[in-house]
Amino acid sequence: MKTRLNITIEQNVLEKVKVYAIKKQISVSKLIEDYFESIIKANSKRKTLLDMVDKLDPDPSIVAESYNKESFYENKKGKYGF
Question: Could you tell me the superkingdom of the organism this chain comes from (predicted)?
């Protein structure tokens, strides 16, 4: 079901949008609807990707090794002579 939406924008922006809509042979309403749809889809994809990353479990051996300060400094000491 379609519903009415009233918006307030700068007049020069509206004029440019109307010209664009004519060139693309699409209504201004359809342009706005498509834009809103793209925002909704982009946000849902982004959220889904973040949810997937959050669900990943890191390998404990990699995590333990990567946070070992002493090992880090020993490695740099040998390499740079600290």
Answer: Bacteria
Radius of gyration for the alpha carbons in the chain, expressed in angstroms and rounded: 27
Q: By the 8 A CB rule, do 69 and 75 touch? A: no
Q: In this structure, what token pair is assigned to residue 7?
A: 């918006």
Contact 5, 15 (CB under 8 A): no
Which uninterrupted H or E stretch holds 49? helix 28-55
CB 65 within 8 A of CB 71: yes
Q: In this structure, are residues 33 and 40 in contact, taking their beta carbons and an 8 Å threshold?
A: no
Which residue in 31, 11, 12 sits closest to 21, CA to CA? Answer: 31
Please tell me the distance from the alpha carbon of residue 53 to that of residue 36, in angstroms, as a whole number.
26
Neighbours of 17 (CB within 10 A): 14
- One-letter identity of residue 63: V
pTM for this prediction: 0.51
